[in-house]
Automatic annotation (TrEMBL):
Protein name: peptidylprolyl isomerase
The organism's place on the tree of life at top rank: Eukaryota
Protein's organism: Branchiostoma lanceolatum (Common lancelet)
Sorted UniProt keywords: Calcium, Isomerase, Repeat, Rotamase, Signal
Domain PPIase FKBP-type intervals: 44-135
Keyword Plastid tagged: no
Catalytic activity, EC: 5.2.1.8
Any one GO molecular-function label of the UniProt entry: peptidyl-prolyl cis-trans isomerase activity
Length: 230
């Protein structure tokens, strides 16, 4: 008799606790989608992302920007909280999302210790996320950062150098790459942010690090324009 009363009391308590808890699903809001968004994250893929973590009232609890270290993990292996396993699926590099995770898909009723401070039990967490990179680890094809579709242009240097100063600025270079991709004449390596690919291609060519790609430094198709040589 005594024990059944105890059991009833305990189960009522559990019931009350469950009723209070938000057992809803993860909420995913896409806040930025890149123009080209075709290579999507899926189970078994390697992902790299930045995040700002807040409570629903906007108070910050953590951010990857503080240490400038991305979260690097493989999707689908329980390396991150359940809510993020769901929230980061079907996402392309450069995409941004706001992912709201109810407690039972985050740390539940446990206190989570952070580098600084801790997340109280029963917290709903809001992550603003930017996916930096998504890779299929089984794919070991050579990784060109950019390639031509159809005919290779004959004079990319001249076409990029819009202001005709015989050197290519970062802006000219970025505009040209985007123009080629927009007109389906070129393709960026999928799985990385286009701005990162442009940065890498630019610094690879700007060997003397003066912030411009000279005619000699330029690695793409180019024609020396003789009348300019005087
Ligand atoms: C985090 O917040 C900072 C400052 O507002 C912002 O610059 C950064 O883009 C945010 N990061 C993400 C992943 O949303
Ligand atoms: Ca120029
Ligand atoms: Ca240079």
């Amino acid at each position: 008799m005594v024990s059944s009363v105890v059991i009833l009391a305990v189960s009522l308590q559990i019931f009350a606790a469950l009723a209070e808890e938000d057992l809803g699903d993860v909420k995913i809001e896409v806040t930025f989608k890149p123009k080209r968004c075709i290579f999507l994250s899926r189970e078994g893929y390697f992902l790299r992302y930045h995040y700002n973590g807040t409570y629903p009232d906007g108070t910050k609890f953590d951010s990857s920007h503080e240490t400038d270290e991305t979260v690097d993990f493989v999707l689908g292996r329980g390396e991150v909280i359940k809510g993020m396993e769901t929230g980061l699926r079907g996402m392309c590099a450069g995409e941004r999302r706001k992912i709201t995770v109810p407690p039972h898909l985050a740390y539940g009723d446990k206190r989570e210790e952070l580098l600084e401070g801790s997340i109280p039990p029963g917290s709903t967490l809001v992550f603003e996320v930017e996916l930096i990179e998504v890779l299929d680890p089984m794919d070991d094809l050579p990784k060109n950062l950019f390639w031509w579709v159809g005919e290779t242009p004959t004079n990319s240097f001249g076409d990029s150098d819009v202001n005709r100063d015989k050197k290519i600025s970062k802006e000219e270079f970025a505009n040209y790459c985007h123009m080629m991709a927009d007109s389906d004449k070129g393709v960026f390596l999928p799985g990385r942010r286009e701005q990162d690919l442009i940065d890498d291609m630019f610094s690879f060519q700007d060997r003397n690090r003066d912030g411009f790609i000279s005619f000699h430094e330029f690695a793409g198709p180019k024609i020396h324009e003789k009348h300019d040589e005087l």
